[in-house]
């Protein structure tokens, strides 16, 4: 049923597309026909007056990569801050997949969100999502590395030793869990699906647990997820070993729908700019104490390069493929 519902979701997504900016659009770039990018910043322009929306209740969510209940509680204080800043009620909407999150924003049911690094591109191109921040500090954004973990007593010492092994990737749309490995590993002499067997685990934490329990020989995962698991005692870091660490990637993006009216957008941006994480939230997010400003054009360049290198397209067909793989994962 879940697989059918996800495929129906994507079919409805494609068939109900109404090109709001189809006429008189000087530049669209990679954006869907519903959107226009007149200023060339690679994200959709804010909907003009008369078309834009001013909902009485704002809907917020965070990426479904990990346990949604944990993050619903973590963002409760920020939701309250958004309510004061906008003068509107803010509710949390739990999504079960990346494809569902993209569709929810495109359809207008989701207004403010945090998207995982990889799916951010789908949200930008297909849902009019405008990312403006990542978790961070006063002088820098919080980032993460792609790491490859094995058990401490594993004979695997180098990336070349992955050949012939069972390696857990997370999901098709995940940057560090799938796209980055496919783009970066060949330069290290290892080609996923060719030199080792790829097994999709569904989530970063499930990949790590699978390696710890011996279900997989190794797994590429996001370093921040791994560090949180060690800190929480979900795994014993002394029982694991990291054989590869990439340069830093940006973490999940935060932003809003281009369908919202400009005055409301200004209030949302101000809330992201001025909010400071309470102590409990800082603990959840590795010491980050604020939302650090970013632009999709500049800060997601490396992610777009990885997507291009792996043949991934941030379009409706790419979303359909992501939904199919997510549905197959849930079916298992």
Would you give an account of this structure?
With 332 residues, this protein is an alpha/beta fold. Helices cover 38% and strands 19% of the residues. It has 2 domains: 2-140 and 251-331, D-Maltodextrin-Binding Protein, domain 2; 144-249, Periplasmic binding protein-like II (D-Maltodextrin-Binding Protein, domain 2, 3-Layer(aba) Sandwich), CATH 3.40.190.10. The chain has a 6-stranded mixed beta sheet. Helix 1 (2-15) packs parallel to helix 4 (98-106), helix 3 packs across helix 9 (262-274) and helix 6 (175-184) crosses helix 12 (301-309). Pfam families: Phosphonate-bd (PF12974).
Short characterization:
The chain is an alpha/beta fold and 332 residues long.
């Amino acid at each position: 049923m879940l697989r059918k519902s996800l495929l129906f979701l994507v079919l409805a997504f494609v068939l109900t597309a109404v090109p709001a900016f189809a006429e008189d659009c000087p530049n669209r770039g990679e954006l869907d026909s519903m959107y226009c990018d007149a200023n060339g910043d690679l994200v959709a322009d804010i909907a003009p007056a008369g078309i834009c929306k001013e909902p009485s209740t704002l809907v917020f969510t965070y990426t479904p990569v990990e346990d949604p209940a944990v993050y619903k509680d973590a963002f409760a204080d920020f939701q309250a801050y958004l309510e004061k800043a906008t003068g509107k009620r803010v509710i949390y909407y739990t999504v079960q997949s990346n494809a569902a999150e993209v569709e929810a924003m495109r359809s207008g049911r989701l207004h403010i969100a945090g998207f995982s690094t990889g799916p951010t591109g789908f949200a930008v191109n297909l849902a009019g999502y405008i990312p403006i921040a990542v978790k961070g500090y006063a002088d820098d954004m919080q980032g993460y590395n792609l790491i490859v973990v094995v058990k401490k007593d594993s004979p695997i010492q180098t990336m070349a030793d992955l050949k012939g092994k069972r390696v857990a990737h997370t999901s098709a749309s995940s940057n560090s869990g799938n796209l980055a490995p496919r783009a970066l590993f060949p330069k290290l002499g290892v080609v996923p699906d060719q030199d080792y067997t790829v097994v999709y685990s569904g989530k970063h934490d499930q990949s790590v647990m699978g390696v710890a329990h011996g279900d997989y020989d190794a797994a590429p995962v996001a370093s921040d997820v791994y560090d949180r698991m060690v800190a929480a005692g979900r795994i014993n870091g002394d029982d694991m070993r990291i054989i590869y660490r990439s340069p830093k990637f940006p973490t999940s993006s935060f932003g809003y729908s281009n369908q919202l009216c400009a005055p409301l957008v200004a209030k949302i941006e101000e809330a992201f700019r001025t909010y400071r994480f309470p102590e409990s939230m800082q603990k959840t997010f590795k010491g980050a104490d604020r939302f650090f400003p970013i632009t999709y054009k500049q800060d997601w360049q490396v992610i777009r390069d990885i997507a291009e290198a792996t043949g991934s397209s941030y379009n409706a067909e790419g979303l359909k493929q992501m939904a199919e793989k997510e549905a197959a994962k849930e079916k298992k």
